[in-house]
Each structure stands twice: as structure tokens, then as C-alpha cells.
Amino acid sequence: MTTTGPTPNPAAARRMTPDDFVVTTVASVFAGQSPADYYAYFAGFFAEAIRLIHAAHVAECTAGPNWYCDTCDAIRAAQVGLLAEQRTAGQEVTGNGHH
């Protein structure tokens, strides 16, 4: 017997996908700084994203394609932080005038 998960809301999935430009910009700000600076800055964002993720997830989002959704935005913010951290791990990131 195969069990499948709930069907995701495509509009919610799009809202939660971080923009590459935003990830690169955030990564460029933290490139060359200590990991403590990065973690201190994003600690609040991660905490809020976790709280919101517990309240709702993509399969339960009822917002349509052109609607605003706080949960989708919180998930996007958390993903930006995680991706920026990955990009700055051991490499220089350039963009937006920061090196």
C-alpha cells in the first residue's frame, strides 16, 4: 500500500520559493563576516518562520495566486537565510557592491 501526502497548493509553492537575487544580495552582505554575525542577524527570522510553519504549511494554504500569505512569506524568508548561509560557506560572494 502506497501512501501519498497532501497535494500542495501551487500558488503557495511559488510564494515560498526564494528569489535568486535576494539570496545573492543577502549572501554578499555576510560574505567575509563571522558566522556569529550571520546567526545573530537571522535568529529572529528563523524563530518566527518556525512558529508560522507550525501553524500552516503548503498543503493547507488557501490563498490564491494573487493573494498575500504570511506563512508563505515566512517560509521564503527562512529559505533565503539558509541558502545565503550555504553560499557564503567557504567562498566569496559578489554582488550589489559588496565583496
The topology string of helices and strands comes to HHHH
Category by helix and strand content = mainly alpha
DSSP E strands, number: 0
Helix content: 55-70%
- The number of helical elements comes to 4
**Largest beta-sheet characterization:** none
Shape estimate: elongated
Please characterize this protein's 3D structure.
With 99 residues, the chain is mostly helical. It has a domain of 58 residues. 59% of the residues lie in helices and 0% in strands. The model has no long low-confidence stretch (mean pLDDT 74).
List keywords for this structure.
99 residues, mainly alpha, 4 helices
Provide a brief overview of the structure.
The protein has helices at residues 10-16, 20-30, 35-55, 70-88. With 99 residues, the chain is an all-alpha fold.
Write the layout of secondary structure elements.
Blueprint: H1 10-16, H2 20-30, H3 35-55, H4 70-88
